[in-house]
Specification:
The model is unreliable at 24-30, 37-41 and 170-174 (pLDDT under 50). The protein has three helices and six strands. It has two domains: 1-39; 43-165, RutC-like (60s Ribosomal Protein L30, Chain: A), CATH 3.30.1330.40. With 174 residues, it is an alpha+beta fold. The protein starts with a helix and ends in a 9-residue tail after the last strand. A hairpin with a 4-residue loop joins strand 2 (60-63) and strand 3 (68-75). A six-stranded mixed sheet has the order 1-2-3-6-4-5, covered by helices on one side.
């Protein structure tokens, strides 16, 4: 009888651990962390050296579920936070800022899924395009260009954001 009780006890423990694992997977939490934050809710905020740090926003966000990087809107400002003069200089700098955030996350322009470029009405879009290409190169990606009445920061003529895949270490270009 004692052997039967021990066997049933072991089976119950085994099944209980399977139930807990399934519960954790269903709730998207790491095994053994029931009641804590779900895995899909954790993101990593990225504020690389060399870019102006602002307490109101982060320069990029890595989402763990798909290893995606969401680069926040980059203006044509240097590491001191000062805007450069003119659409060409601001656009090239905004693109370099996007590249800096990508590199800090371990990815590059070849992994960018989407770029959105916001241009203030009245700027020469051809000048902006040429300047962006000079910094970005020939990396093809989905691009949306939006004309705006202005940006939240006075004097900003362009803002660029992007979404990129962060490849697993050791993975080649896709």
């Amino acid at each position: 009888m004692a052997d039967l009780v021990l066997h049933v006890h072991r089976e119950l423990i085994h099944h209980l651990s399977e139930v807990c694992l399934l519960r954790d997977l269903y709730l998207h939490t790491e095994p053994g962390t029931f009641g804590k934050r779900p895995m899909t809710a954790r993101t990593t905020h990225l504020d690389p050296d060399g870019l102006h740090r602002n307490p109101a926003f982060t320069q990029g966000v890595i989402t763990p579920a798909a290893r995606m990087l969401h680069v926040g809107g980059q203006l044509g400002s240097g590491s001191d936070g000062e805007l450069l003069d003119g659409i060409e200089a601001q656009t090239a700098q905004a693109m370099r800022n996007v590249l800096t955030v990508l590199a800090a996350a371990g990815t590059g322009p070849e992994h960018v899924a989407k770029l959105t470029i916001y241009l203030v009405q009245g700027v020469d879009a051809h000048e902006a395009y040429a300047a962006s290409r000079s910094a970005w190169g020939d990396h093809r990606t989905a691009v949306t260009v939006v004309s705006t009445a202005g940006h939240a920061r006075p004097g900003a003529l362009v803002e660029v954001d992007s979404v990129a895949v962060v490849p697993e270490q050791g993975a080649g270009p896709s």
